[in-house]
Design a protein that fits this description.
Elements: H1 8-15, E1 19-26, E2 31-34, H2 39-59, E3 66-71, E4 74-80, E5 84-91, H3 96-113
Antiparallel strand pairs: 1-2, 1-5, 3-4, 4-5
Helix pairs in contact: 1-3
């Protein structure tokens, strides 16, 4: 399987040294793809992604295109379009600009191929 044929979350984890796990969800929060082969874990990350988006939308005057949240032991990043949200968990010392760049690049590839 060539890199372009891999699901977006798997490409992101492969591309970004600091990303530990990633999921792709649709605009309703349904899981479309995951880097993790553990389906229970992937579903949980997708559910948490949906909750994160809902919480951000509840407090922001307009929908945000990117989110960064620091938690104990790591960082959660998400980028979204009208159709998709790509979210990941990264190491706590990850450089936000680099991870967000990788997220946006992966999302552009995904949106361009759809």
């Amino acid at each position: 399987m060539s890199p372009a044929e891999k699901p977006a979350p798997a490409r992101l984890v492969e591309m970004s040294e600091d990303v530990r796990s990633a999921v792709l969800v649709d605009s309703a929060g349904a899981l479309l793809g995951a880097s993790d082969s553990d389906t229970a874990r992937a579903r949980k990350l997708a559910e948490l992604t949906r909750e994160l988006i809902e919480a951000a939308d509840a407090v922001a005057p307009e929908p945000t295109e990117q989110i960064e949240v620091r938690v104990e032991g790591g960082v959660v990043f998400a980028v979204r379009t009208v159709r998709h949200t790509l979210a990941c968990v990264a190491h706590r010392l990850a450089l936000p600009a680099l991870v967000l760049y990788d997220l946006r690049q992966t999302m552009q590839e995904l949106e361009g191929s759809a």
